[in-house]
Amino acid sequence: MRITVIGWYGTETIGDRAIFAGLVSLFSEVFGDLDIRLGCLGIVLSERTLDEDIEFLKKCSEGYKLNVELFDSRIKRELDQFINWADIVCMGGGPLMELEELAIPLYAFSKAKKKGKYTLLAGCGMGPFITKKKIKTALKIARASDFKIFRDEKSLSIYNSYVRDENDAVAAIDPAIFAVKHFQAINETKPKNYIAANFREPTSEYGVNVNRQFFCDYMEEILNKNKEDVILVPMHTFEFGGDDRYILNAIKRIVANDRIHVENKPTSLTQTMELYANATGCIGMRFHAILLQTLLNGKNMILDYTDPIKGKTINLIKQFNIAEQVENRYYSLINNTGCLRTNIIEMPTLKIEDSIINKYRSVYINQLKQIH
Questions:
Q1: Are 222 and 344 in contact (CB under 8 A)?
Q2: Does pTM surpass 0.85?
Q3: Comparing C-alpha atoms, which of 248, 208, 200, 240 is closest to residue 331?
Q4: Who contacts 64 (Cβ-Cβ below 8 Å, separation ≥6)?
């Protein structure tokens, strides 16, 4: 099957890379051999990340042939070429939100429909939006999609609130989960004596009510309450989108404790998952850090920088059915409420039922099987 995947690649985080690996797993199960063209907003970063991840991606394809090549989705000539080439044009995860680059998937899906190609939203979020113009653009993209699989019930609810009774979309879960499950199936945990922590720069766009000093004070408490060293793990190491290493190195410099180490060299997807899986405990702030840590480790503290009522982190917690389990390890950075736990090692391990993951995988598989 020939699939052109577009989205926010070219500035990808570890989470975006996990999403793509999860999609490869899903596509391979349904379609077998895959020939994928991955559209990027500039290919400099993606050339490196694809080279780092390709062996794991091939394992996610479960023995089927996999070929992945990159193109620049900002260049109309290249985008046209790989729309015409594809059997399916797919928006591969990420949110439909207030971005000028929404024009790219709108153009791609509109042209693909005219060419008689299948179009697919796979694990996308809906919002946040600021302007009515971007809402209309997102809705045009969705309406041009033959299959709409949102990453959570909240995104589906937002979409349905705009379209009323069309009933043409479904909710599943973030595709990155299926990359994690595949990693677990082929790797053994090798426990080591450290705490793995991820923080991102607090930004005003989310209404985060803390500054860098908050994280420095928290790190000092962590070091005081636990004997383990702390490895600060970036989920993003590219300027556009916020390189986590800025804040991580600032924390190390300000706290000035030799037990803090920063993973400054960019890690592959599998290397990042290994860091979380093998840790004695974890702390996560970025959405996909929380997702990976919860599944791979389970002894993890959750720092939520998104809306604590309707944001993507709280929706993931609901999807995992662990709201009660995380009451003593969840802290909202917007409301400054919750339990800011410091004794990481003493936390019980979170348990995610396999039936939950399997249920969401079935949603994807059932939708994809309708593509002939």
A1: yes
A2: yes
A3: 208
A4: 28, 32, 33, 34
Kindly state the helix (H) or strand (E) to which residue 5 belongs, with its residue range: strand 2-6
The Cα 74–Cα 78 span in angstroms is: 8
Cα–Cα distance, 279 to 230 (Å, whole number)? 9
3-state secondary structure of 61: coil
- Cα separation, 259 vs 223, in Å, equals 8
Among the listed residues 312, 235, 322, the one whose alpha carbon sits nearest the alpha carbon of residue 273: 235
Q: What pLDDT does 282 receive? A: 98
**pLDDT one-digit tens code per residue, 2-44:** 999 999 999 999 999 999 999 999 999 999 999 999 999 989 9
Query: What domains sit in the chain, N to C, each tagged with a CATH number?
Result: 2-175+356-368 (3.40.50.2000), 187-341 (3.40.50)
Task: Kindly give the residue spans of alpha helices, DSSP state H, lying in the chain.
Answer: 14-31, 44-60, 76-85, 103-114, 132-143, 153-163, 176-186, 212-225, 245-255, 269-277, 287-296, 312-320, 354-368
* Pairwise CA distance, residues 234 & 247, whole Å: 9
3-state secondary structure (DSSP) of residue 156: helix
Q: How far is CA 122 from CA 27, 62, 178, 275, in A?
A: 11, 20, 13, 28
User: Per residue, what are the HEC states of 208-273?
Assistant: CCCCHHHHHHHHHHHHHHCCCEEEECCCCCCCCCCCCHHHHHHHHHHHCCCCEEECCCCCCHHHHH
Backbone angles phi, psi at 276, to 5 degrees: -75, -45
Torsion-angle region of residue 336: left (phi > 0), alpha (psi -120 to 50) or beta?
left
